[in-house]
């Protein structure tokens, strides 16, 4: 991912709606065609009715014609001045949208630090389509 794309991702933090936690998160999902889909977290007074940035980006991609299972990268950044890991619910959704060898890149707010994982490392034993279709 180029520096300008990282800067755009960081800029998306300002669109997060987090009046309760104060934690702003932005995500960028990139499919195998190179299309970019952004999402931010949106909180709601009736917890847990909000939505994390990762799921917002992936779910929002569907309306634009993205194919579930076609994503090769997911980038995540927050305003916490540290690396923020995706929650369990997001990891399960990511498992369905991302390829098994997709890169998940966690960025620090200043873009100076990043941690890179392969999707299968983040949720070993997660529920996959093949588990349900073979039942």
Give the full name of the CATH homologous superfamily. Cytidine Deaminase, domain 2
Residue windows where pLDDT falls under 50 for at least 5 positions:
none
Q: What is the 3D shape?
A: globular
**What is the level 1 CATH name?**
Alpha Beta
- By helix and strand content, what is the structural category? alpha+beta
Radius of gyration: 14 Å
- Secondary-structure element pattern, one letter each: HEEHEHEEHH
Briefly note the CATH topology name.
Cytidine Deaminase, domain 2
Number of domains: 1
Termini Cα gap = 39 Å
Strand order of the largest sheet: 2-1-3-4-5
Mean pLDDT: 93
CATH 2nd-level architecture: 3-Layer(aba) Sandwich
- Beta content comes to 25-35%
What's the β-strand tally?
Answer: 5
Helix content: 25-40%
How many strands, what sense, and barrel or not for the largest sheet? 5 strands, mixed
Number of helices: 5
What features would you describe in this structure?
With 135 residues, the protein is an alpha+beta fold. It has a single domain, classed as 3-Layer(aba) Sandwich (Cytidine Deaminase, domain 2). 30% of the residues lie in helices and 26% in strands. The chain has 5 helices and 5 strands. The longest helix is centred in the middle third of the chain and has 11 residues. It is globular and about 45 Å long. It starts with a helix and ends with a helix. The mean pLDDT is 93. It comes from Metamycoplasma auris 15026. This is Cytidine deaminase. Keywords: Hydrolase, Metal-binding, Zinc.
